[in-house]
Structure formats: C-alpha cells, structure tokens
C-alpha cells in the first residue's frame, strides 16, 4: 500500500473492492462514506492524482481489483478502452497498428491503443494507457472478430481482411503504404485471406482510392476477372490519376483501368 494512504482513501478502496465495483462515479460515495460533495470531489481528485483511481471521463474512475503494490495502478489497454467506450455509449473496434501487430503484419508493439468508434475523436489517457480515438460514421464500423485478453475481456478487433483494407484506406494515419501491398500479397499467398474477402471489404469500407489501389494489386496478382469487375463497377470514369505509392513522386507507367500511376514496384 502506498505510504501515507489516509483513512478515507483506505475506506473508499475497501468499500469499492468489497462490493466488486469496477468503477466509481461522483455522487456514489457520499451516502456510504458520509461525505459531503466537496469532500468526495477532493477525495476522488486526490486519489486520481496519486495514481490509485485512473480517471476515465469526467466523474468516472476505474477501481483497482486489489490494493496496488507501490501505491499506483493502471488498467490494461483493453479495460481502459472498453470502460471509456461504454461510458459514452460508443461502438468501437481496435484497428491500425494494434491490429497490424495482432495479425503478424508488423512486429512492432504500439505504445498506444488505436480504435475506430462512433463517438469520440482525439487523444486520451486513462492511467498510463494512451489512446488514439478515431471517430467514424457508424456504417464504417464492422467486419470484426473478438479477441480475449489476458484479463478475460472480449475486445472487438478489425478482422484480418478489414485490417488489410484499412492499411490502404487509412495509409496516411497509419503510415502503412507501401508496406500494406506486401502484407496483402503474403496473406493471399498463404491463403489466410481470399481475394473475394478483400473485394467485399474494400467495396463496403473503402473509398475510391482504396478500390483503385486494391484493384490494381489484385489484377497484378492474377485474380479472376469477375472479382475485378466488381471493383471496377464502383469506379466512375475519370481522367484523374493517383499514385500507387502516395509517399513517392507520381511518375511512372499509367494503368488506365484503375487510374493508378505505377510509381513504385513495392
């Protein structure tokens, strides 16, 4: 237990843990602990600053399941994210670098959690957990699979195919092109995803640039023409061209079918 933990702090933690409360809200402790509103506010603020009650949102705090050794406690990334999303009534799914690592596309472990959701945007911190929240329209949420964390939480991740498509769609945010092209080739070769899955997800969750780049890639990989035509029907005739690799100068052979400039062989 943290040195100097006072009687009120001890009483509050004991009260919450005895009742198995995962969170505390402002106003809930006044009756049981016989506190005034000012006393409760000061107590919660003091414990949050001491690292005992990570603040999730205004007036909402996470409770450690047991008294933390050393006097500080931080939730897991999954717990921080799920509690925050539940407090705002948000749907969400883990995406980007976290999903890249989960599926083995990238061996770098992200130092923050990335999540698409339909309520919140921006950076937030819950305890020691840093979160990047990406607000999207509700219809852009979906195509997920559930992952169980070490503490038993069910966390929705973008599916393998959805993660590959998002690596092309959200390349500027995730710094994922041209690496994503190699990931897609490898996943197709290993039959962990199919061309049909990629086409379906690209049409549902991609934009025009995503469809163009994935169409060009799949054609080079020898995908059957009926699948390519499904992608092509999404595109309107245009003379505008996009770079295959947006991080390189737009110079190279032009693919008129997809409106792509082959400026990089990645």
Describe this structure in words.
- This protein has 266 residues and is an alpha+beta fold.
- Helices cover 39% and strands 18% of the residues.
- The protein has helices spanning 7-18, 30-33, 37-49, 77-87, 96-102, 160-169, 171-174, 179-189, 195-205, 208-220, 225-232, and strands at residues 23-25, 55-57, 60-62, 92-94, 113-117, 122-126, 129-135, 144-148, 154-158, 242-243, 253-255, 260-262.
- The mean pLDDT is 93.
Largest sheet entry: 4 strands, mixed
The DSSP helix count reads: 11
**What characteristic shape results from the CA principal axes?**
elongated
Content-based structural category: alpha+beta
> Could you give the distance between the termini?
54 Å
Provide the residue-averaged pLDDT. Answer: 93
Task: Give the spatial strand order of the biggest sheet.
Answer: 4-5-7-6
Task: Give the total of domains.
Answer: 3
List keywords for this structure.
266 residues, alpha+beta, Arc Repressor Mutant, subunit A, 3 domains, 4-stranded mixed sheet, 3-stranded antiparallel sheet, 12 strands
What's the gist of this structure?
This protein is of the alpha+beta class and 266 residues long.
